[in-house]
Amino acid sequence: MSQNASPRNDLAPEIVLPRLASRRLGRDYEFLSACASTNDVVCGRAAAGASEGLVVVADGQSAGRGRLGRSWHSPSGQNLYFSLLLRPALPARHATPLTLLAGAALARTLAEAGAAPRLRWPNDLLVPAPGGLRKVAGILTEMASDGDRVRHIVLGVGLNVNGLEFPPDLAERATSLRVALGRTLDRARLLIDFLATFEPVYDDFLAGGPASGLQAWRRHADLGRVCRIDRDGARVEGIAIDIDDDGALLVRDDAGQVHRVVSGETS
User: Fold this and answer.
1) Cα–Cα distance between 216 and 98 in angstroms, integer?
2) Can you tell me the distance from the alpha carbon of 144 to that of 92, in angstroms, rounded to the nearest whole number?
3) Which end of the chain has fewer surrounding CB within 10 Å, N or C?
């Protein structure tokens, strides 16, 4: 499916679809030259009955967003903004690890492109850049449920690919793959590789739980650092030592007590 697609755009369906290696994720593909938020578009498509595997990609977003209501810098023609529709037959409480599993797949994709990604719990990807580790991507998962059962999950990814400039409030924290690697990258190749990498991770999760995917997350995890997690007005400070079998972060404080953190903002 196509709307406002240019044949010359590297994310247009006629460029992406013949190169897809995934079996079902992305086979229903929609490209938009611009939208407010790809997550919002997919939420609407899901409510209208769209099937699992739908991918909506935008060349630019006017109201892209991250976790906790933050905006996501989304200039046209530079980066990768897409959302994927999932319909796992799971209790809602078992779907939490999907953010980490997507992070692991995206980290592997970036590693294969030559980057050295680090995953910061729960949803950020960092890469070495001038000035230290800086954020290059974020993942936003939004779920709708019927009682305790998942109705659908929208998995949104924002990846800074070829941008060189950031707003003042992001300039000290964000980077792009182009800045980190010193070369431009093919946005379509990154999307195709992510879908091909994430699909078996997702299938393994549905068949046997998150263990193998969480182990993949650990391989790129930014653990062993002093961190601070703000949650529900409280603060946990200590060393991030691991994640548990459900994907919760384990933090050991100065007194040696280990805290299990299931939600919050890490810094």
Assistant:
1) 12
2) 9
3) C
71 DSSP 8-state letter: B
CA distance 135 to 223: 16
Contact 100, 65 (CB under 8 A): no
Instruction: Count CA atoms within 13 Å of residue 164 on its CB side.
Output: 3
Helix (H) or strand (E) holding 44: helix 38-47
- Assess contact for 32 and 59: CB atoms under 8 A: yes
Domains of the chain: 2-219 (3.30.930.10), 226-266 (2.30.30.100)
The secondary structure of 190-251 as a DSSP string is HHHHHHHHHHHHHHHHHHH-SHHHHHHHHHTB--SSEEEEEETTEEEEEEEEEE-TTS-EEE
Q: Mean pLDDT, to the nearest integer, of 214-237?
A: 89
Task: Identify the band that residue 68 occupies on the pLDDT scale cut at 50, 70 and 90.
Answer: low
148: confidence class by pLDDT, cuts 50, 70, 90 = very high
Q: What is the pTM of this model?
A: 0.92
What tokens were used for 147? 């009682």
Q: Which residues neighbour 112 within 8 Å (Cβ) at sequence distance 6 or greater?
A: 193
167-216 confidence digits (pLDDT tens): 887 778 899 999 999 999 999 999 999 999 999 999 999 999 999 999 99
Name the residue type at position 69: G
- DSSP designation for 91: B
Per the omega criterion (within 30 degrees of 0), is the bond before 130 cis? no
Alpha helices in 65-165, H assignment, sequence order: 98-112
